[in-house]
Specification:
The protein is built from two helices and seven strands. By secondary structure, it is α+β, with helices and mostly antiparallel strands. Strand 1 and strand 2 form a beta hairpin.
């Protein structure tokens, strides 16, 4: 499985696919993008993203991970800046 290749000693992912799979399987993920912390996780069968522990919260319409990856943070879709994502916790 793609998650088997995550380096437990690194705070970076090796691919966009790893981020997509963690969202798809419903893991609680805390990430940092450009020094701002974000939480991504499941809630009531859908996906939720929140900024800095509830400064901002958005509930997505579906549980489709692509909907999350297409969300725009700092003018870019998450999927386009996955290399800048720092994993805080998973």
């Amino acid at each position: 499985m793609i998650l088997d290749h995550i380096d437990p000693y690194s705070d970076k992912l090796q691919s966009l696919q790893q981020l997509r799979v963690t969202i798809e399987i419903g893991m609680d993920i805390q990430i940092k993008i450009h020094d701002t912390e974000w939480y991504i996780g499941p809630l009531q069968g859908k996906r939720l993203i929140s900024k800095n522990n509830d400064d901002f919260m958005h509930m997505f319409e579906t549980d489709n991970p692509d909907e999350v990856l297409n969300d725009v943070i700092d003018g870019q879709r998450i999927r386009d800046q996955w290399r800048d994502v720092v994993i805080v916790s998973m």
